[in-house]
Structures are given as structure tokens and as C-alpha cells.
Amino acid sequence: MKVIIIGGGIAGLSQGIFLKANGYEVVVYERNLKTEGRGHAFLINEHSIELLKSYIKKDIKLSPQKVDLFSFNLPDKQELINIPLKGWYCLKRIDLISSLSEFYDSSNLIYGKSFSHFLYKNGQVEKVVFQDGTSATADFFIGADGSNSKTRASLFGKTEFTAVEVKEIVGYTKFKINSESKIFTKYQSREKGLSFGYIPVNDDEIVWFIQYDVRFEEQSEINNPENLKLFCHNLLIDFPEVVHQILNSNNFSNTYIWNTFDFDLLPSFHKDNVVLIGDAAHLALPFTSAGTSNAINDAEKLTQVLLNSNNLEEAFSRYYSLRSPIVMNHTQLGRVLKNRFLNPEKDNEKEINIPLIPDDENLNKNSNKKLNIAYFTDPICSTCWIFQPIIRKLILEYKDSISFSYHMGGLLHSWEKYSSSKINSPKDAAELWDELSKKHKVPMDGDVWIEDPLDSSLPPSLAFKAAQIQDYDKALTFLRILREMLFIEKKNISKWYVIEKAALESGLDPSLLLIEIIHSGRKLLDDDLKIAEVLEIKTFPTLIFLKDGEIVHKSIGYKPYEEIEEIIRELIPETKKSKIVMPPESLFKLYNLLTTDEFCFLLSIENAIGEKMLAELNSKDIIENVIVKNSSFWKLKLNKQQ
Q: For residue 641, what pLDDT is reported?
């Protein structure tokens, strides 16, 4: 089978090598006249390097520089973070491109060919036509022509990019760092959107970058190398001397200014017999260092599905299902980090994100785990409310092995569009909640659907996605408080004054939350809803288990703890379970509100023992029992809350 790849960058060349290794006839067409050196150097993870080596039948001439540490500093040289990095390397782009090009000759790597359009026959692309008038035929075609992909435009029309709010200047220079360790060093302002970083490429050379708020350009002219050098020095005037030494050593004739932007997840990565990979298919902002690793992972996953599918349509659809949740997470994380970068005064110094996507590829900031679980839920989902103790116990007992990322599923867009076998009106919801409350001994007052029914679950879902931008941990507290307000206090959590109160109680800034609801939050919610649609998630809770960046299991609906635990053990047999050992008062300081059953479940104790412990805490005036409709719960007393 013959395939034509449009674009001879890292994505296209890697894809061609992977397919050639499996018997495909491959021809790569590149628009440039020779191997391009733009981009200087980049970070790449070990997993991506190993993927390349696994498909290449002879030695690949690569000398990646292992990066040992990440050091995050303020401009005054105060170090906030210094942590070891596992499996990350720095590599010259020209070195990787040249090495990959060696696996081609002039018959299957053709330079100077710019894409023009496709010619169709019987609903499939028969030929690709280039701007010089030449054309070529193949069984299928792969677009790997970068962020401004003309192939993508031919399939899906004009791409709506996000506004350029941050620019990045990238340089490459000889500069010897007096340190035995190879350190990714970054200085970032806590007062404005400005940072400088450098990474060793070898013992004598570094790649450096400046990221800055575009508003800094308003009074500057950057039309030649000298002006660019002056602009960099002035921009970083308060940064340490080593920064200016690096700038002085640099040749600004070979330094580039990149406009950073991304675009929303495409509805598909293919159309007919044409499929997209790399930046042509998806684009993340540079705060995640995800581009190169994503390109190679795309190529590997597409190869695998082609080898294990009955036809192209099946293969391309499976490829989208595997990769779209992961790259959507990268897009979301990039946007979150951009917002924090542009608003550093709103960020907590203790919550600094390492600007690297780990192998397991998950939005959660604790995603350096062996197994990642994407949790699709909804603020008004009664089953998710009942399921909450299971999530809590999983986190406590398997905290060293798993991580969760929270995604909204869009349970109730509106009553006009909602249909269910059990619920078709607010009155039905009220009856079901009362029934479930009695059955599961969980506080849940269905009267909210009679007294002040919600028209949609999208407003609180949108508020949660906006809260994630401001503070990931506080967003989870915010979601819990919203649910307590709805299920226990009978508050309509789609109303702003209720959302605002929940934000205050969770430590969020309501004014900033409202700004993010209006701006970035909507895009994040749309991404979640799109992925839920792609993965055919219609029931909540749904847990998507990811290992090494690949979906390995899908759990739909309520499952008992033992069943979820068994899935984890099957997927990571080497995992070790942590016993929950803490004073009972500490459990309330962690979660504040617990039913008797939940308290006993979390501590894995008999109810009789748990009831005695709760009675003792109550006698010491530490907790109080609150009676609600159909149930009761224990709550830390106000004077004991922290």
C-alpha cells in the first residue's frame, strides 16, 4: 500500500520510517529546498526516543543531552524549585531531522514541493497536487505540514487560532555552564508575564528562550537583529547577570520570534483517506514542551492502528479516539499555564507547574503516576455524589500509583434536550433523589427540584472549568462545595450568587473566576464535552484509565470499590496499597463532612467501632451531627475548622 506524507519535519519523517518498517511504500514531500534548521533545539522525553529506536533497524545517530534537574527561580535568583527530572533530554532539531533523513533517498524524500490541493475520485483523494503543477497518487495521504497546515485547511476549512497573547524568542549559542549537572533553568517574574530559560544541548552549547506578554512590544521596534538584542536586554533588565551574559554571547541573526497560539480540538483528525498528525492535527502552547513528543507518539499510534484495523476509516477513527483525549489535555494545560503566566500575582508560589508533559500525559498536575484516570462527571449527577467516597478512598490508598483528572460531561444541557428512561422532568429528579438517598444512606434532598429547579448543569460545569484555570486543587474543593450546596442545602448552583459563595468558601477569587467564565472557561468546557462525545460517554461517572499515554480501560457507571481496585491491580500489578492511618479528627479536617458509613468505609473499620469513635469526637465537641432529609452526616465544628 502506498502512502504520501505531506511535510518532512519530525512528524512526517518519523511517520514514514514507522510505516516503511512495516512494509508500506512511502514518499515524503517537503516544501523547503533542504533540511531546515529552524527551531534550534527542544526537549524530548525518553519514551519518544525509545519509540524511534524501536522502529529503526540500524543505529540512529543521535546524541541527546540528558537533563538532570529543573530549577525554577525568581529574577532575584531566589530558587523556588529544584527537582530531579526523569527521562528528559535536550536535542538539536537539525540533528534529529538529519538523522531521520538518512533513512530516505531522493526517490522517497522530495524537497521543494508545496501543497496546493487534492484531486478526488469516487469520494476519495486520488492525487495530491503541488504548487509547481506536479502531482502524485497514493492509496492514502498523511498531512504533517505543521501548525499552519494547508492540508488541514483543505479538509476542514480555515482554522480559528486563539489570539497571540504570549510570544517566545528562541536562541542558540555557545555558552559553558559551570555545573556538573545538566539543569533546565528558568527565571520567571512574579509581577508580570515574563520569563527566561536555558537548557544545555551539550557541554558547550545551550538553547535559550524568553516568553513574554505581547503588550511589552507596544513601545518597541524589533525590525533587525540589533533591535532584537536591545529589546531582550531591556526586557530582562532586572534578571540576573548570567541572563545578560547569555544574550551577549548570542548571534541574533539566527534568533527567532515565535507567535504562540493554539486551536480547539478538531472534530476529527481525518477526512476520507487523508489523516493529520503532529501540529497539523493539534497544537499546544509552548508551556508544556509537548510538540516533538506528541508528533512521535502520533506517528506510532497511527502505525499501530493501521496494522490492526480492517480498513482506513476504522484505523483513522481509532487513532482519533486514542490521541484526542491526550492532546486535548495538553491544550487545556497549555491554556491554564498561559493564564497563570499572564497573571502571576494570582498564582501561589508553592504551586509551580513544571513545564513538561510526562510520559503518562495527563492534565492533572500530579500526573507523574503509573496510571492516570480521567474522571468524567457532572456537578448535578446523583450517582457521582454517591460515588465520591470511592474516589476519596482510591486517592488515599493508591496515591503513589494513580492520579485523577476531572472532566465535565454535560449531563443536563436543558430539559428540552434531555431524555432518560427514569427522568424526564424536575419532578422525576426529585423522586429519584429521595429514593437514592434512602437506599444509599447519603444526604440528598430532592426538594430542590421542586422549590428551585436547575434548568441546566452547564453553568456550574463552566464555573468548575474556569476554577481549574485559577487553581487546580481549589477547583476540586469548589466542586465539592457546589455539590454540598445542591444535594444538602437545596441551592440552585446554576445561579451566580451561589457559585460566587462557593468560590469564596473554597478560597478562589470570585472576580477572577467570573473573568475566566467569560473568556477561557468556555473553551475548556467545550473540549471536555467534545471528548465525552468522541469517547461515547453518556453515563456518569465514567472512568477512562490511561497508561503510557494510551487508553487501556473504560469503566462506565457506578462500580463498587473492590471492582475499581481490581482494575488498578490488573493494569499495574506492581502497585502497592497504602493503609489509611490517621487520627479520626484529621479525616474530618481533610474532608469536613462525612456520613457514618463514609467515615467507616474510608478507615476500613466496622460500623460499631466507627460509631464509638464518632461519639467520642462528638463528646469532645470536635464534630457535630447534622440531621437532614432521609439521612444525617457528621461535620467538623466551625471553631475546629482550618
A: 52
Architecture of the 584-640 domain? Orthogonal Bundle (1.10)
Convert 319-349 to b/e letters by CB count within 10 Å (16 or more is b): bbbbbbbbbbbbbbbbbbbbbbbbbbeebee
pLDDT in tens, 165-192: 999 999 999 999 877 789 999 999 989 9
Q: How far is CA 372 from CA 167, 554, 601, 637, in A?
A: 32, 12, 23, 35
Query: What whole-number distance in Å separates Cα of residue 268 and Cα of residue 316?
Result: 9
Q: Which CATH superfamily is domain 371-571 in?
A: Glutaredoxin (3.40.30.10)
Residue 49 has a pLDDT of 86
- pTM of the predicted protein model: 0.70
Cα(589)–Cα(583) distance, integer angstroms: 10
301/321 Cα distance (integer angstroms):
11
Are the CB atoms for 398 and 599 separated by under 8 Å?
A: no
Helices then strands, each counted (H, E), the chain: 20, 26
CATH class of 2-56+94-160+263-323: alpha beta
Angstrom CA distances, 125 to 121, 135, 267, stand at 6, 12, 20
534: number of Cβ within 10 Å: 17
Q: What are the structural domain ranges in the chain?
A: 2-56+94-160+263-323, 371-571, 584-640
